[in-house]
Amino acid sequence: MEEVSISQDLKKEHQEKIKKVFDEVGKVVVGQEYMINRLMVGLFTNGHILLEGVPGLAKTLTVSTLANVLHLDFQRIQFTPDLLPADLVGTMIYNQQKSNFEVKKGPIFSNLILADEINRSPAKVQSALLESMQEKQVTIGETTYPLDRPFLVLATQNPVDQEGTYPLPEAQVDRFMMKVHVDYPTKEDELEIMRRMSNMSFDNKVGTVLTKEDVFAIREEVNKVSISESLEKYIIELVFATRDPKAYGLDKAAEYIQFGVSPRASINLNLAAKAIAYFHNREYVLPEDIKEIAVDVLNHRMILNYEAEADNITTVDIIKELLIKIPINH
């Protein structure tokens, strides 16, 4: 009994700390609670996040502030067309004094990596990043080096300016747990942003709330959140409905979907729903948790055809239709 109460106390302490993380980040970043929530879901389920939004929406500021609050090593890498894989992972450098080659590790050897404007770099850089995202390791020369834990890639891309960009390969996009659309702030939030940032003496220092040990402990607690068999099957039905919409009576969606989502979608939907339930201080997943996170987990994994583009239909429209039409069988 004592062990149970200790773990419950620890869980309560972690829940309080998570609230404090939002408060601390809020000292610097106005609004954007949705983006912060999704970044935290990624952190506690070990999933990379792709942030998409126009410039100036505090994507970079939010990630760097979060890294400070979590007391994690943070590196910001600005992706440009002339970036080389060695600039990312490191390289071998010849030491004249010792007459041998030494490894100089790149910025990828950190806990939180902000890949800024990730779609501005060519395929070689993307493939170097792909290995680190999937395998959590980097190969320099003939040696493979494990990356620090936790390791998380938080990438940003600008959906407006497509000139001089390299669309991310489908295999890489699929490795992002979620693609989060970052929207404009409300009038009230923008007024507060303007006031803060126009104040030359504004202090953007934040306190440290979580440690690495806390992050690993919270991951364990999220992992223990239970999900019923009927909800597991509901996730599978959602995923299969993207692959064969006609079988689910979704004739309209069938006209637009070229390729459905991959098995990573079902894995990540399960994990993310557990994290959402945990944030709501529950030990079990509800259908609402799955519906809350479904758009972010599925939207970048579905490939639509040209008819969808012509009719101005997006993946978000189709996912919302799926959530309305696919029943939960108890």
Give a verbal description of the structure.
The protein is an alpha/beta fold and 330 residues long. 49% of the residues lie in helices and 16% in strands. The protein has two domains: 2-199 and 210-218, Rossmann fold; 227-325, Helicase, Ruva Protein, domain 3 (Orthogonal Bundle), CATH 1.10.8.80. The chain has a five-stranded parallel beta sheet. Strands 3-4 form a two-stranded antiparallel ribbon. Strands 6-7 form a two-stranded antiparallel ribbon. α9 (229-243) packs across α11, α11 crosses α12 (287-298) and α12 packs antiparallel against α14 (315-325). The longest helix is centred in the first third of the chain and has 25 residues, at 2-26. The chain is globular and about 70 Å long.
Sketch the major β-sheet: 5 strands, parallel
- Report the end-to-end length measured between terminal Cα atoms: 33 Å
What is the count of helical runs?
14
Strand content: 15-25%
CATH class of the largest domain: Alpha Beta
Helicity range = 40-55%
Number of strands: 11
In the CATH classification, which architecture of the largest domain applies? 3-Layer(aba) Sandwich
From the structure above, extract its key features:
5-stranded parallel beta sheet; alpha/beta; 11 strands; 14 helices; 330 residues; 2 domains; two-stranded antiparallel sheet; single chain; Rossmann fold; Helicase, Ruva Protein, domain 3; globular
